[in-house]
Structure formats: C-alpha cells, structure tokens
Design brief:
The protein is α/β, with parallel strands linked by helices and 172 residues long. The protein has four helices and eight strands. The protein folds into two domains: 51 residues, no CATH class; 109 residues, no CATH class.
Amino acid sequence: MPDRSNRGEVTLVVIPKAETRGERIDDLSRRLLPSNEIMRYVKRYLDDRRLVGTVVNVVKPRFKDLSLKITLLRRSIGTSDRLRREIEHKLRRFLHPLVGGKDGRGWEFGRPVLKSDLVHHIEEIPGVDGVDQLEMRDELRDVTVEHVRIDDDELPFLINVHIAEKVRDDIR
C-alpha cells in the first residue's frame, strides 16, 4: 500500500500462506503472522529490486480483535453442537485474511466488518431460521458496536463466538 503521508514510501504487509482447505476451526482461528526470518528475507529481496529513492517498509499485519454474541431463531428444541461449529467455522472463514471476504479471495485491508454481512452468512446455514440478535464487540475498546472500523493496514480477527438459541414458540 502506498504511504499517503510520505511520498516515495511503500508499505508491504506480509501475510504468510496457511493451510486453508481443512474444515477444522483451529486452522481458521490462528493469527497469520510471518516469522522474523521471512520478514528479513522479503525486506532484503525488495531492497535489491526497488527504484532508487523509494523506501520500502515491510511490516506484519495488525489485527482488530472482535467478538460476537449471536441469538439464533430455530423451530426445534435442543441445541446443536454441529450447527454451532458450522456457524463459527463460516464466520471465521468469512473474516479470514486469505480465504475470506465476499469473493473468497481474502478479507480486504481497511474493509469494515458490518453486522448485515455477518447475519447474511449465518442465515445461509441450513437449520438456522433467522438471527434474532447479533452483538458485535470491539475488544480493544471493550464496547459493543454496530460495525467495526478497520484501518488501512488492519484485518479483523475473531476472538470469541458465543451462540444462544431461541425456539420460535418462545418469541412473543
């Protein structure tokens, strides 16, 4: 990304490649941070090839931590661990730096996290009749928010997902 404050400077944010084909939530719940060795290698590689007068900054990604509290609407009584795992997996995948976003090609730097996008993804899952409530929490500021603003050099990172269920008969 170009540095808007300093002409002639470019910042490259390095995200390491990770195994994303697995269906395990653990694979999607790790922060993708490159090692110091990779950072030095990339910096040396780019320094050898940059234009004279260009400053290349190589940095690790910054993450904006958020948590979700979701209340689902369902027709049947009883909790479903499979459904909860599927919801968490789908949300973590959607917010992932490499396979997330609307097109599945990775979450865009600086793109805010909107409740409406999250609700849409949850309601696509078979067994979910609807989302009664979704509370999004900005962990750094420790406040509930309507959307999470992400800076140009940041990516979202999902800390916790708490899912509760409401049976349609309980709704008045």
